[in-house]
Backbone:
């Protein structure tokens, strides 16, 4: 077998010294195959690294009009439901069904699975929302099946690429400054989390650029406890009047911490979040936040795959307004 070529069913048959029909029956789960042949076939599969499972499934199902979306497997509490919904809706609009395949591991594991899916005859196209390795590039079409990379997540399903845009921090800091605020504090997610790091970096630059004062940053889990602890740790005579948070859960914790200390919002503190969680607009006095347009990203990603299937140019989307600040009652003038 040539170096770099993926093993085929016939390669397994040749190494195991059986017919390819026997290998086909093996991967289909035929119990009538003799044990000696089963052992040789399994040994050949292990030696070659052949992956028969999806092939066997495709042989049983023989589905058409099906597209696969490959995404990293994760144990994170938040999954990209809005983006997946938009991706699926775009496929449905063109008459396709979608199956989402969550793959543990990094780019190599995703590439293996994408190539396996393309080889199976089970799907008509494969879209990955995270990077592939060097085996997949523009125009990769094994067996005529397009494989498209539209990388908006990393291996942990954290935002990547265009999803890291933190430019709304500039607008948030600017508006707060216009309202008279001069003393800021930041509450963010874990250090090392890409989006959390980027939002803090842009916040910090925006504060410095306007000659304002940042009295530090509290970083921790992306949940309310980080926000509560951050506010409870501020001195009673803290000059901070504006708290800028990296997501809405953190901001909810800030609101609770302020309430426990008897600090009104926005009378004593102005507070902002990010992500536009639905509950935010119902938390008194209404949380100022950032809407992230996951739907446009999802539609564009699937549209790129569909364009490849139809031999058309990929859609061009303007992501400069991917994020929009929504001003609500949690922001007011400096006290």
Residues:
């Amino acid at each position: 077998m040539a170096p770099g070529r993926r093993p085929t069913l016939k390669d397994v048959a040749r190494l195991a010294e059986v017919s390819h029909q026997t290998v086909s029956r093996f991967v289909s789960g035929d119990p009538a195959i003799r044990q000696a042949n089963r052992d040789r076939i399994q040994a050949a599969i292990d030696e070659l690294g052949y992956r028969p499972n999806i092939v066997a499934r495709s042989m049983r199902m023989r589905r058409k009009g099906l597209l696969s979306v490959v995404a990293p497997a994760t144990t994170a509490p938040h999954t990209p439901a809005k983006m997946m919904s938009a991706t699926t809706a775009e496929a449905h609009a063109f008459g396709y069904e979608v199956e989402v395949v969550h793959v543990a591991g990094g780019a190599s594991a995703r590439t293996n699975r994408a190539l396996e899916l393309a080889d199976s005859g089970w799907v008509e196209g494969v879209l990955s929302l995270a990077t592939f390795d060097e085996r997949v590039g523009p125009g990769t079409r094994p067996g005529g099946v397009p494989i498209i990379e539209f990388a908006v997540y990393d291996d942990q399903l954290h935002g990547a690429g265009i999803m890291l845009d933190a430019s709304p921090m500039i607008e948030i800091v600017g508006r707060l400054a216009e309202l008279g605020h001069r003393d800021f504090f930041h509450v963010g997610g874990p250090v090392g989390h890409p989006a959390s790091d980027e939002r803090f970096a842009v916040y910090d630059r925006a504060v410095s650029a306007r000659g304002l004062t940042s009295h530090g940053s509290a970083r921790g889990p992306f949940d309310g406890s980080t926000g509560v602890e951050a506010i409870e740790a501020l001195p009673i005579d803290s000059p901070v009047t504006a708290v800028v948070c990296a997501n809405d859960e953190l901001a909810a914790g800030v609101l609770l911490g302020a309430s426990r200390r008897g600090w009104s919002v926005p009378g004593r503190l102005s507070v902002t979040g990010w992500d536009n969680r639905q509950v935010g607009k119902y938390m008194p006095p209404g949380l100022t936040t950032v809407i992230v347009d996951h739907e446009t990203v999802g539609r564009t990603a699937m549209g790129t795959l569909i364009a490849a299937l139809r031999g058309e140019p990929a859609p061009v989307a303007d992501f400069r307004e991917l994020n929009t600040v929504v001003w609500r009652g949690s922001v007011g003038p400096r006290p």
Observations:
- Strands lie at 66-72, 97-103, 125-128, 147-149, 183-188, 213-219, 242-245, 270-272, 289-292, 323-326.
- Residues 163-292 form a domain with the Rossmann fold fold (CATH 3.40.50.2300).
- The first strand starts at residue 66 and ends at 72.
